[in-house]
């Protein structure tokens, strides 16, 4: 952006002899390089558009098809246009302007191109049909039936070669709309263990009335939308769940990701920031060029990549009734940096007005912020233009960087408190030293530890996690000098950072103070607790012939029952990215089968009976997860039915009650998507801490967990201190004991069982 450059291309002074004009060669050079970079980016986007538009075909395939067609017709002495030019010549005087040979060449190219496009469309249709089959998900882990193997071979054949990030977007199937009957039946099944007989009979009556009367009418509108729109859920989900929410997004919506748990590459804040910024910019360049490999389940089934499009240069812009997600197409990868800050004196610097530099260049730019003298808070007023320019710089920046003046780190002498404070800092900081509306906030602490805070409306956690895995994996490769500084040489002519100017009148200061009071109360109420669980991991869980995710979810139910003495409505996030523009679906983990197992664990049932009930609970959970991933979940369907009812002005007691039920236990697994980037066998110390989020209900828990390698599972627990029912540390103790007790049923690890 222009504000980032301190050099001025043309400088002139007026003298008695006339105008003295000076040209800055370095500034002109930067202008030239910016233009070259811009045109290169346009060309890359144009090329990527073609490659994605014709996938699973390719330009090479076009040459082969057209060349083969032309050669065949020449060998057979046939008219390559199949009589096309003869028919056109009757109405358009083509023959006057083209020789016979030219007509054959042009005709052959046209017919060959049509043949090539036809082949592409057939391949896409077949690929979409193949991707709509989900029978492979019913297979047991580690084994595939012949039908699934044949399907996977056909899938590989029609998927093409060397796909780019967005290559499969046009081939992904649409998210199906479940039937009203199935959704109502599964809903009743999900709430049965949470209601007594009288409550359940009442809810059953409301459900049956909805299924017979209003439900089919609302369903018709959803069917119509599913045929017309790319996804019948995602736009409404973004608008009504995120953008129309009027509460603070800090704690309530934004989530965080942590640094390495046991490794501290450098204690120099600017150096760590330099390497991290370099890694992010490399990732951004790959994203611009669509060179990131699309996520493929089993290396075969592509996931939707639409959410990547708004990762950078994106801001959530608030409104009176609803907000919007603003994404700038700016090609200048600027970064907003905040260092010195107070409630009313926010000093933000616009830096990095170039594309890709060495880490040391970024380190020097960041270091400038330490060496620049800081002025006192400005009390005078500025023009609106200044404020608008500053706000534009914020909203169009690639991401936000906070150079936090506190020190955060896992301390072996005080492991519990150090991690808990670290999590709270990433979640809300001091309430005024993060730009929570930005898509990404990277936080680098005074001692070199770093983390990430992400806004939720534009994308879900796996998208941000993909970027963060890249950043963490790059850090050891980039390395540091012996004294902790970045490796390499700085850019010789990199412009320095420029301070953004703001006008803050008295009434604005009052609003800031009022909002800060609310934010601080919200932040102080959050109770965070991190558990690096190392007693065992998925290695032993798999020996129990149980899904690791099902094992953990059942353990959470057991822990919650011991913690509160009752069951609750439980939310587990699942993805629907096997469908175009898919986001998430809910797995209702508190099932009849799980509750039966929990009662057996707190009762005096035999080990054999407990194992039997555990197997049933795990199978039920896996089946619910499959249904959610394949578009047969119930909660997004119920949500969209509710939205339609509001548009129609219809009041549904059933939907109103369903959508008002609180999620007392909200859970999510943070998947490690790029396993190949981390060698946890040879380097177990390079283990990520994962990430977490705030509690959803005032009297509930938020639990995020990440499964790392064969022996690590990290839990992130949050709750509110104001609730007498919750205590994150108490719940953490119950989770650990529940994990050990369930594993103890299998007698695989005597030490863990004890």
Can you walk through the features of this model?
The protein is an alpha+beta fold. The chain folds into four domains: 56-133 and 146-162, no CATH class; 178-231 and 633-661, Choline/Carnitine o-acyltransferase (Fumarase C, Chain B, domain 1, Orthogonal Bundle); 253-334 and 377-485, Choline/Carnitine o-acyltransferase, domain 2 (Chloramphenicol Acetyltransferase, 2-Layer Sandwich); 519-630 and 662-754, Chloramphenicol Acetyltransferase (2-Layer Sandwich), CATH 3.30.559.10. It has 23 helices and 20 strands. An eight-stranded mixed beta sheet has the order 13-9-8-10-11-12-3-18, sandwiched between helices. Strands 14-20-19-17-15-16 form a six-stranded mixed beta sheet. β6 (314-317) and β7 form a beta hairpin. α17 (548-564) crosses α19 and α17 (548-564) crosses α22 (728-744). The chain is globular and about 90 Å long. The N and C termini lie far apart (61 Å). The model is unreliable at 1-14, 373-383 and 749-754 (pLDDT under 50). It is a multi-pass membrane protein. The chain crosses the membrane at residues 50-72, 105-127, 344-362. This is Carnitine palmitoyltransferase 1A. One of its GO terms (cellular component) is mitochondrion. GO terms for molecular function: carnitine O-palmitoyltransferase activity.
